[in-house]
Each structure stands twice: as structure tokens, then as C-alpha cells.
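As described in the Methods, two query proteins were run sequentially through the folding procedure within a single session, without resetting any intermediate state between them. The first query and its resulting C-alpha cells are shown here.
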Amino acid sequence: MTHKSIKGKAVSDYLAEFPVQEEKKEAYNFPDEEILVTNDESWELYFDGASNQMGYGIGVLLISPDEAHTPLSVKLDFSVTNNEAEYEPCILGLQAAIALAVRNLRVYGDSSLIITQILGKWKVRSEGLSLYQTYLENMLKNFENRPQFTYLSREENQFADALAKLASMISIPNELDNIPLCIESRE
């Protein structure tokens, strides 16, 4: 027999011979207990924009710390460039987070241009985009901590992408301002 099997047999024999009758609650005294507790109250925001022959749409997914998902999908009734179509959902998502009094936010998008411009790694050269950038920077002052911006691949941002495509392709009747969206999973 190998040493491991002998040790394993000894442990199992001991546990079989002396079973634990009752659970003992031991009191531990941690003087710095509050340091051990992590309270991550960060929300997550995923955004994406879409422009195609049918129109322009933006998709936003807000996820609360308790995993509640809030999807937003908006059809734009004005013409935008592809890059402006990426700034629009980011701004909409930040506006929604501000309205919900979110203090800590992690933002994810699949537009490397927008993310790197927000992070200050690239300069904004387009006059149209500089207006978006200035507006977005002013919005960031509403958060307790500056939101963290992270680039995601398109595959990792599928839900926001689907919302944006849905909004760009749908035709909303004139008498309606909004259409409720319900997404559920069935087995």
C-alpha cells in the first residue's frame, strides 16, 4: 500500500470511530474584523451602439450589486457617426446610474476608441466627439469614485450589442414613446 492510502484509511477509521456529535460554535475574536469584510457595492454598466441601414440604436445593461439586471434599448431619431453611436449609450448608462444614485460603477464597452479616450490615453480629435467627451467628463463628477472603464471584446459584450441592434432595427410607431422589454430564460 502507498503511504497516501494508509493515511487516508487512518483518517477515515478515526472519523468512523469518533463521529462528531454536536456542532461546537467557537467564538473567534478578530480585533480588526471590519478589515476582513469586503463590501463591494459596485454596479456594472455594459454599453454598445449600433448603426445600420435601418437606423441607429443604443444598448445599455446595468447590473446592481445584488445581480438585478436593467436593460435599456433606445432608437436614435437623429443621424450619428459610428463613434458617436458608441458615446450615446455610455452617456445614457451614466445618466441612468446617476438617476439611481449609484456611487461606485464599473463600465464596460467594446469600443476601444471610446474607452481609451475616456481613460485619457488617446486625444479626441473630432469636434463632434469632443462635445461628447466634455459632457461625459462632467457627468463623471456625480460619482463618489470615478467609474472604472474597461474594454471588452464584442463576444463579452453580447447582451448590450443585442439591445443596440434591436433598437436600431425596430420601427416604433409614432404614437408610442416606449415599448416595454421583457427578457426571460426558459428551459
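Immediately afterward, the second query was submitted; its sequence and C-alpha cells are:
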Amino acid sequence: MSLAERLQLLEHCFQTDTLGYHLSVLKSLFPGGLTVLSIFSGIGGAEVALHRLGIHLKRVVSIETSEVKQRILKSWWHSSGQTGELVQISDIQSLTINRLESLMEKFGTFDFIICQNPCSQSKGSSKMAASGDRSPSLDFSLYYESVRVIQRVRDSTERKR
């Protein structure tokens, strides 16, 4: 991957140390580690921040459409010596109720759900890219899918109580 492609992947990311500051409260709450559902994971900034805080990642279910970003997360997972399990799903729409409940039966409930905004380039992105204006827009269909998944996890967790 070229340097320009790598920098483009970081264009709308959140600085991991800042994210780590906000997530640091989880360390005392989950001393044994976390089972994480990461929706629209990107290159795994949340996972990196949790790891840097010393929080063990027992299981991470990562939903990310970009194959390049999936490879980056998987490469980091292996190079950082993670001992937990990483499950990568390429399309949130393929995360059916049955598949989600199967994952929850296998892993138990998710301790933590993190969701990045499902952005896409707005219409006319090639024109905007040429002019230097590459503002992302919220993809509402993907947003509604993420809400569907989060609600299903919440409902399943409440039923188990």
C-alpha cells in the first residue's frame, strides 16, 4: 500500500491516545478483559487504545466493509501478540439475528460495544476529490443497520438477566 493510500485511511480517524483517555475507566471495571463488538471498526483504533491501556481483549467481533482496513486490523492483532479471538465480518447486513445470537451463545454477552460513524463519500465525490473537498456524509442505511444490531444485543442481554 502506498503512503498516500495509508494516509487516506487515517483521514477521519480519532487519535488513539485521546480515545484511550475516554476508555480508561474500563480497566478497573473489567480486570479480566473485555468481549467487544466493534461496528465499523476501521483500522482498529478502539482495539489499539484498549490494548495500550493494558485491557485484555478476550474476544473482538469486528464489522468492517473495507478489506484493506480488515487486513490492517488483522495484521495488528497478530503482531501485537493478542491471545483473544478476533472475528471479522465484512458486511453489517450479513449479521443476521441468527448469526448475532450464535455469536452471543458462543462468546456470552458483549461487555462493550463501540460504533464508528458509517460514513461514505457523498454524491459527486469524484468532483469533490478533484477540488480537494472530500467531506464524508452519514450513510443512513448503514446507520440503521448498526442501530438494529445494537438493539438486538441489548434485547438479548436483557432476556438473559
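The helical segments are 3-9, 16-23, 26-29, 45-52, 67-79, 97-107, 125-131, 140-160. We note this only descriptively and draw no conclusion about the first query from it.
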